[in-house]
Amino acid sequence: MKSNNNLNLDMEKDQETTFDYSKRAQWLRAAVLGANDGLVSTASLMMGIGAVKQDVRIMLLTGFAGLVAGACSMAIGEFISVYSQYDIEVAQMKRESGGETNNEKLPSPTQAAIASALAFSVGAIVPLLAAAFVKEYKVRIGVIVAAVTLALVMFGWLGAVLGKAPVVKSLVRVLIGGWLAMAITFGFTKLVGSHGL
User: Fold this and answer.
1) What pTM, to 2 d.p., does this model score?
2) Which residues lie closer than 8 Å to 137 by C-beta, 6 or more apart?
3) Rg of the chain taking only CA atoms, in angstroms
4) For 109-143, how does the pLDDT look when each residue is reduced to its tens digit (9 = 90+)?
5) Least packed by Cβ within 10 Å: which of 9, 70, 127, 153?
6) What is the largest CA-CA distance in the chain?
7) CA neighbours within 13 Å on the CB side: how many for 103?
8) pLDDT tens digits, one per residue of 92-106
9) Please, what are the averages of pLDDT over each run of 10 residues along the chain (197 residues)?
């Protein structure tokens, strides 16, 4: 009896140590990418409009429009992508089994779309909340950058830990990408806005 328990524990340990982290890759990629995309694109939109308009309402409306448009775009894109994968897998199952399909093994386009939209929205809400309660323009810009930086660090860390990737490399990549997106959007919008558009 004792040897059976030891055998079961050894098998569980082997399964834990040989777990293929690439199996997590698809949902992890979608969740982290969606949240990071929501964070960076919404913050960049808000920074861009903030470069030419200091009004907090305009900045928040721009961010909100970015959240809604981005969440819808991510959901539709993910739905189409996963539905294409679904069709391919159904066709493959039919070829291999003579017409039968195992629906339990098939991806769900609707679930993927909802998850993608939610992940984008989670990221997008960060700069909106950061800006919502700050009236002073320069302070508001600083608060948005600080909140986005903190969220970028969290998303980079989470992606690295869940994917068993190097944490520092992931953090640096996510931070630099987010900062560049905000800076480029702010700079180009300021440049275009200063020339009378």
Assistant:
1) 0.79
2) 50, 54, 56
3) 22
4) 888 889 889 999 999 999 999 999 999 999 999 99
5) 9
6) 83
7) 2
8) 888 887 777 777 778
9) 54 52 59 89 95 93 96 94 87 79 79 90 96 93 96 88 84 93 94 82
Which of these, 109, 108, 91, lies nearest to 100 by C-alpha position?
Answer: 91
Residue-wise over 113-127: b if at least 16 C-beta within 10 A, else e? Answer: bebbbbbbbbbbbbb
Q: What's the pLDDT score for residue 73? A: 95
What does the block give as tokens for 122?
A: 């989670």
Can you give the pLDDT at residue 103?
A: 74
| Integer Cα distance of 78 and 125 in angstroms | 20
Neighbour count for residue 92 (Cβ, 10 Å): 11
Distance in angstroms (rounded) separating the CA atoms of residues 58 and 46: 9
- Report residue 64 as tokens: 């909100």
Q: What tokens appear for 22 in the block?
A: 């690439």
CA gap 50, 141 in Å, rounded: 8
Which has the closest alpha carbon to 50: 145, 129, 149? 145
Q: Are 76 and 109 contacting, i.e. CB atoms less than 8 angstroms apart?
A: no
